[in-house]
Amino acid sequence: MQYDPIKRSLGTVFNKTPFLRKLFYNLLDLLLLRAWHVHHHLNPVIQKANAENKSLNILDAGSGFGQYSYWMSSELKNCNILGVDVKEEQIADCNNFFKSIGRENVAFSVEDLTIFRKENKYDLIVCVDVMEHVLEDVKVFENYASSLKPGGMLIISTPSDQGGSDVHADGETSFIEEHVRDGYNINDIKEKLFRSGFSKVEPHYTYGTFGSISWRLSMKYPILMLGFTKLFFIVLPFYYLIIYPICFILNFLDLHATPVKGTGLLVKAYR
After folding, report:
1. How far apart are alpha carbons 179 and 130 in whole angstroms?
2. Residues spanned by the domain of 129
3. Strands, DSSP E only, in the chain?
4. pLDDT in tens, 178-225
């Protein structure tokens, strides 16, 4: 199914005031297991930068709603963040919101990741739910490597080929129609990153048994119901009141597990 119209509807609801936008970000952080994993792996970087009073230049590659830029700019004492995306409407919304809350160290720009490159510019690049939408992935990885400072880190969250995008057998189609690939083979993405100029690559599976159940309960079923009728917006808060305690436990278990396979991948790569 197409996910963008549903995301656009959510954006319309939560863009009305800065308070609603912040509430939306907090809800995403609570619900999305990938946010749990990304935060978990970025926390040591943030703590080290804060302890050393170091300012980080950060690229939020495929910034979407801007929730990761908001979280990082809230957690870091000193940083400059650029969020880039191909969707002009989302970039405009993000610039308006961050301006309204006075975060002048965060800006957003319409950019194509297959072209965008800033030599030796960034300490950290965050790329969440992006690479499954990009056909020319090696070109993007090369741009990331060139844009990082020596020793800089790239963090990627993306579906794996072990059932990512809810594809479990040949002939099945992705749950999200906008995906150009169902998921990465863990060795394939590692090889591509090395070939693109990274010196160290650390991939591991996410969304194991616990996480896959949580994803269905917290994301797949609500999205399907919203795709069927927008009236489900009325029922949605009550649905999550019932289901979220279960998803919270499942997310916690997935975060602290080391699955031998999973439907997601979390990859850290260093220049």
Report:
1. 9
2. 4-270
3. 56-61, 79-85, 106-110, 122-128, 148-159, 200-206, 264-270
4. 667 888 999 999 999 999 999 999 999 999 999 999 999 998 888 888
Domain tally for the chain?
A: 1
Q: Are 179 and 165 in contact (CB under 8 A)?
A: yes
Torsion, Cα of 149, 126, 131, 193 (10° steps): 30
* 182 contacts 164 by C-beta, under 8 angstroms: yes
Looking at residue 132, what DSSP letter applies?
G
29, 66, 140, 210 from 25: Cα distances, Å: 6, 8, 27, 23
Task: Name the DSSP letter for residue 65.
Answer: T
H or E element: which one contains 167? none
Using one digit for the tens of pLDDT, what is the confidence trace for 204-215?
999 999 999 999
| DSSP code, position 120 | T
Residue 111's CATH number:
3.40.50.150
Length of the chain: 271
